[in-house]
Design goal:
Chain lengths: 375, 649, 236
């Protein structure tokens, strides 16, 4: 499918740009790579050689946090332009090799890491979880790729299962039938594969007869809620579910956790989908937990650099990682735990704690892990 | 036998480019009752009008259809033409084939076709027009001015000094509006209070101005020349005839910390009983009933009463509603600053030392909380200050409009800050709007002072190592920047008042898309509204600086004085009447009339319209089962003829 | 399509749309009224009789009517006519009522074009012309009216000295609109029509439609179960 870059102007509203620089100014990788969103918009508008323009490695540094699009006063669709350019490149076969591998893996094995499809639900085999298809349930717990395959994130999945079982929520997982939600796929530029995943997943969900979907990752939450064209089943992120369970008394927090804790708002949950209160409600309902707010929180939360395909991007950035900046900010605040609600934040921040040599001062834990300790 | 003359205007190419005017004229000539049909380039011009006059005199034309621009443009012109030829002006019908035809349709054939339908309908309608006499109503000589900021004050003085009476209603306890909060004004750096105190003092002293403070306009009834307004006077719990403005009550008030002061934009606190600020006009104490312990909770020693030597405090004061009869109204209610809480990326309300433009004015003002020193919350002097332009303006996520004055205000504030603190100053801008007299020169001066102008809108503010970091991009250099400063001043824009919608409903005027009140015509009638007799002045109509506000206020005053001098005005004759022969006295019309303008005549058992009160809305005619009630110029006959004429060509 | 535009909002907005050179369907013919409160049901019916395929009524939003409540009265009237159009088989989609501020130019263009699309899909209206008995059986019946005025003679709530519907194109249809808000269900008109037009039934149907739409009667309380209500001031 040939894509004509000239269509980008109309599609992404490039002609309304007033070159104010709000996009570049708020970009989380502005000091980490030569990526300059404002200049890219202007260059795309005027270019006579888009192939040459788009072949820059810094275009792969974008984390698709969407701060640029959200703040643009003129209505330019900045992050969508990046995705459009990546789509153009993917169609020509001109993506970095690690990205190409991630895309191919998803096509073949249903997850960007290329792990075996059949082993997707192994993490759950002794937890007594319903597999939809073999049993029926009201709610689908859509696990996601990282929470299924990454050993660190599997703890999150396990914790969440325990919580849902304790609260007697009727749920099931898709098991081996589950495939990647496609959110990152779309952001890496593979529109066609994304459309296929969306279609197949939507049918799968409809056939399973479930009435509600809960996701672990905010990325999956975003894809299902905002980008799947035919999905009408209500979707929630697990923080919304747990907050509701606590409020309605169906989940009792009985143990105290006497720790100073701070929280990283994930871009795909917070600034993009405006879910700010529920994670905080959960944390503050744990007795003994001292919640401290970092200055850069909520809409100003600093992107961990995990999104936009960055989990599969090699190099291209320099300087101090945002994750390290965050860890240091949390430590300076006096927090001993950095709470997260996103598998990518979890992985990148935990890694950053190690590279900053601050693992003795702070641990990174997902909200599910904290709640599981407290029930 | 009616003799209808149909005149098609080309309006240059405005109509003729899309509508085939000669074909339209030919078509019109074939319609029943039409004696002559012509087309001409500019009917509103003298030769154009002469053309019509000639036909009236020579061909005995007694009804005229003008197919041209919207009646809003030239209905008056052609009505006068008919009157000048001794024809009743209501024998005119304007067919709108420009704004609602040639300007909105591109296909020539279809536009001409539609124009034919419109003209056909216009001819059918005009043949059923009746002669009507325009009603003349007297204009009451006094004026209501809503809002006593600089606009209201200026208009009030113009009118009062012209010998006419003014009722000036202000919501706050003081007059002067936002201008009273400013330190120095651009570009002359005049002290705001110094230049307007003479005006406020004059307002207080002028015998032709009746000032109501702590009051609001609750209801407006009537029509041009004859408005009845209800002014709600909120209780101040202080007898202003006795209060001397000494301030002893404030000292004595038991509230130790007080509440945030509205005048100081929250930068300082005030007691429950307070004087707005030391130079306030009028300088009278008022009690805020929400923070007053006695009024809200019933428990207080009332040390204020003890302290007041003038015995002016009266907790038994009640709300009063005062009715005034005025001839015209000037709305000068001003603006509200944009609330930066709505743009969370700037951290307003989360971190200290992030303030709005108005808050900076209070800091800088010698009568402000710091006596004019620019200090941080902890009392220290800032070493670096950032001014962010376009906060809440020109923004799809906030307000679309440009607030016009903030560029100049930011630069002025930068200059003052530099003078007072010697700090490094950064102005983050997108464009510099320095449009007025002396403004570009001031911009140069500010640059010469070494203030840094960074072309890039501030994207975010966050705290790091005890300083505030402004994230932006220097778009001219093409490099992203993070500038550490101590104080951030957000150039918050001007928006319509929070209650503009309510005010618009009370008055019956409209709002523009941006929320400000709508002028009758954006270019040619900037101070009038769609309601005769109600005018606009100042920022309530749109953001503007002080020179423009004063000019507009004087313009509104001139309109008012012109009305009053004339003494009478013609109002639409299109009111309703009830045919006593047909009326069966069912009273449905009385029930539905919004102005209670219909009386029931008991003896005859029928209803009758009170012509003085009727506004010609037509509600009675629509509800009357036997159509005894009819609205002149919009009768069943006439409208049905128009409807049929539009469709059955 | 015929449009009824109120002078203070929709007509002003249409002028603004012209000034900004917006573009909308050329088969939209506007009629200007001082206030929609004066929009008579008969104007609407006349529009359909004269060949309108759709009627669009545009006026000030609630609370913004220059004459206080004209817009809300009009809306109510529209709903009654929509009910009538449903019963007659014309369909309520051929009448639409939209609130519009004078500054909402894009909305005006959207509404006119959207309505045009809808009407184009529905096709020509053919009010009171169609011979299709099955679909338009009520219209077929009403067409039979030969203006004998027997129903009017026996009706207690028509106390007009000169009854307006007499001069309307089809007396039966005009009569319906005339009495609908005030019919007391006395049933006197049941068997008086020499053409056999079932007036009583159709009025009942229409009143039922109104209560479905939660429209309270304009002035008089609707009685339950066929009793004559106490009506004020009959001068018949």
């Amino acid at each position: 499918m040939k894509i004509d870059p000239k269509t980008f102007i109309k599609e992404f509203q490039l002609n309304v740009c007033i070159q104010c620089g709000t996009c570049t100014g708020g970009c989380p990788v502005k000091f980490r790579s030569p990526l300059n969103m404002r200049r890219l918009v202007r260059e795309t508008f005027f270019t006579t050689n888009p192939s040459l323009l788009f072949k820059r490695p810094e275009l792969w540094a974008c984390t698709t946090c969407s701060t640029c699009s959200l703040r643009c006063p003129a209505g330019v669709k900045n992050v969508e332009l990046i995705m459009g350019i990546r789509n153009f490149l993917a169609n020509q076969g001109e993506v970095p090799s690690t990205i190409r591998d991630a895309l191919e893996n998803t096509f073949l094995q249903g997850n960007p890491w290329g792990r075996f499809r059949d082993r997707r639900a192994d993490w759950a085999k002794d937890l007594g979880v319903k597999i939809l298809g073999e049993a029926a349930a009201e709610t689908l717990l859509y696990v996601g790729c990282a929470p299924s395959y990454d050993p660190r994130v599997q703890n999150v999945s396990t914790a969440l299962v325990r919580i849902l079982q304790k609260a007697e929520v009727d749920f099931g997982i898709l098991g081996k039938k589950e495939s990647c939600c496609g959110n990152e796929i779309r952001r890496m530029g593979e529109q066609a594969l994304f459309k296929k995943l969306a279609k197949d997943n939507t049918n799968l969900f409809k056939k399973s007869g479930i009435k509600r979907i809960i996701t672990i990752s905010p990325h999956c939450f975003n894809a299902f809620k905002n980008e799947y064209p035919d999905l009408t089943i209500p979707v929630q992120h697990y923080t919304q579910v747990i907050a509701d369970l606590i409020e309605t008394g169906r989940l009792r927090i009985s143990q105290a956790l006497n720790l100073p804790v701070t929280y990283q708002d994930p871009c795909f949950l917070g600034k993009q989908n405006l879910v700010f209160d529920e994670p905080r409600k959960i944390l503050t309902s744990i007795p003994g937990l001292e919640f401290a707010e970092m200055d850069r929180s909520k809409q100003r939360s600093l992107c961990c650099e995990g999104g936009g395909g960055r989990m599969w991007a090699e190099g291209g950035t320099e300087g101090t990682r945002n994750g390290e900046i965050r860890i240091k900010e949390a430590v300076a605040l006096g927090a001993k735990v950095m709470a997260t609600a996103c598998p990518f934040c979890l992985l990148t921040l935990e890694d950053s704690a190690k590279t900053s040599s601050l693992t003795d001062q702070i641990v990174v834990k997902d909200i599910t892990e904290l709640v599981a300790e407290a029930i | 036998m009616k003799k209808i003359g149909v005149y098609i205007c080309h309006c240059g190419t405005n109509i003729a480019a899309t509508v085939d005017c000669s074909e339209l004229a030919r078509f019109a000539g074939t319609l029943p009752g039409v004696k002559v049909a012509r087309d001409y380039r500019y009917l509103c011009s003298d030769p154009g009008q002469d053309l019509i006059k000639k036909d009236i005199r020579e061909l005995g034309i007694d009804r005229v259809v003008v197919a041209a621009c919207s009646p809003r443009m030239h209905e008056m012109t052609f009505k006068n033409l008919l009157s000048s030829e001794s024809l009743n002006p209501y024998f005119l019908n304007i067919a709108n084939i420009r704004e609602q035809c040639s300007w909105v349709h591109k296909d020539r054939e279809r536009a001409t076709e539609k124009a034919k339908h419109i003209v056909h309908a216009a001819v059918a309608r005009v043949s059923r027009h009746e002669p009507l006499e325009a009603r003349k109503v007297g204009i009451k000589p006094s004026t209501l001015i809503v809002g006593a900021g600089i606009a209201g004050i200026q208009a009030a003085l113009n009118i009062a000094n012209g010998g006419m009476r003014v009722v000036l209603v202000e919501r706050a306890p003081y007059i002067g509006g936002h201008m009273a909060q400013l330190d120095k004004t651009f570009p002359t750096l005049d002290c705001a209070s110094c230049i307007f105190t003479p005006k406020t003092v004059e307002v207080a002293r002028n015998k032709n101005i009746e000032l109501f403070i702590c009051s609001e306009v609750a209801d407006v009834k009537g029509y041009v020349g004859n408005f009845t307004v209800a002014i709600k006077k909120h209780p101040t719990y202080v007898d202003h005839r006795r209060c001397t403005g000494c301030g002893d009550c404030m000292e004595a008030c038991v509230l130790k910390r007080g509440v945030p002061s509205e005048f100081e934009e929250g930068m300082a606190r005030r007691k429950a009983i307070y004087l707005a600020f030391p130079q306030a006009v009028p300088l009278k104490a008022v009690v805020d009933k929400e923070s007053c312990l006695f009024l809200s909770k019933g428990k207080c020693k009332k040390t204020c009463i003890e302290a007041c030597k003038a015995e002016a405090i009266d907790f038994d004061q009640k709300e009063e509603v005062i009715e005034k009869e005025v001839g015209s109204i000037i709305v000068a209610t001003g603006y509200d600053p944009f609330d930066p809480h709505l743009l969370p990326q700037y951290g307003y309300g989360v971190s200290d030392n992030i303030i709005t433009g108005l808050q900076f004015e209070r800091l800088s003002s010698p009568s402000g909380p710091n006596r004019g020193e620019i200090l941080l919350k902890d009392g220290t002097v800032p070493k670096a200050i950032a001014f962010l332009h376009c906060i809440g303006s020109r923004d799809e996520n906030a307000k679309l409009h440009c607030s016009r004055i903030c560029c100049m205000a930011s630069m002025k504030q930068a200059h003052l800050a530099r003078e007072k603190t010697g700090a490094e100053i950064y102005e983050f801008y997108i464009d510099i709007n320095a449009f007025g007299k002396g403004y570009q020169e001031f911009y140069k001066r500010v640059r010469e002072e070494g203030i840094y102008f960074i072309r890039g809108k501030g994207s975010e503010i966050y705290k790091r190592d005890g300083r505030l970091i402004v994230e932006a991009e220097d778009t001219l250099l093409g490099t992203p920047v993070e500038i550490p400063v101590d104080l951030v001043v957000l150039g918050t824009g001007l928006t319509a008042r929070r209650d503009a919608e309510t005010m618009a409903q009370v008055l019956g005027i409209s709002q523009s898309a941006d929320g400000f009140f709508m002028e009758a015509h954006p270019k040619l009638r900037p101070v009038s509204t769609n309601v005769d007799g109600i005018f606009l002045a100042g920022c309530c109509q749109g953001p503007k600086d002080i020179p423009d506000t004063v000019a507009q206020a004087s313009a509104a005053a001139a309109e008012v004085m012109s009305l009053v001098t004339k003494g009478e005005i013609e109002v639409e004759a299109t009111i309703s009447s009830i045919d006593p022969e047909i009326c069966a006295g069912c009273k449905l019309c009385i029930e539905i009339c919004p102005y209670s303008a219909i009386d029931f005549l008991d003896i005859r058992g029928i209803s009758s319209v009170n012509e003085a009160l009727c506004k010609g809305c037509g509600a009675c005619t629509a509800v009357c089962p036997s159509k005894a009630a009819r609205q002149r110029h919009f009768t069943q006959d006439q409208v049905l003829a128009e409807v049929e004429g539009l469709l059955a060509v | 399509m015929l449009g009824f535009l109120c002078q203070n909002s929709a007509d002003l907005c249409a002028d603004f749309a012209g000034m900004e050179r917006k573009s909308y369907a050329p088969n939209f013919f506007p009629v200007r009224l001082p206030c929609l409160g004066g929009l008579d049901a008969f104007f609407l019916l006349k529009a359909y009789f004269s060949g309108a395929d759709g009627v669009l009524v545009l006026g000030c939003p609630p609370g913004h009517c220059r004459y206080k409540r004209g817009n809300e009265t009009a809306k109510r009237r529209m709903q009654v006519i929509q009910g009538l159009l449903e019963i007659l088989g014309i369909g309520k989609e051929r009448l639409d009522f939209v609130w519009i501020h004078p500054s909402e130019i894009s909305k005006l263009v959207e509404v006119v074009n959207g309505f045009n699309e809808r009407i184009t899909k529905l096709g020509p209206c053919g009010f009171f012309q169609s011979e299709d008995q099955a679909k338009f059986h009520w219209m077929t019946e009403l067409k039979k009216c030969d203006h004998c005025y027997q129903c009017k003679e026996v009706c207690p709530i028509c106390f007009c000295k000169r009854c307006y519907p007499e001069s309307f194109q089809n007396f039966g249809l005009g009569w319906l609109v005339h009495v609908i808000e005030r019919c007391t269900h006395c049933g006197a008109c049941k068997d008086v029509c020499p053409q056999g037009i079932r007036l009583f039934e159709i009025v009942q149907l229409l009143q039922q439609k109104m209560s479905e739409l939660n429209l309270l009667p304009l002035s008089f309380p609707l009685p339950q179960g066929g009793e004559k209500a106490g009506i004020v001031n009959i001068t018949k």
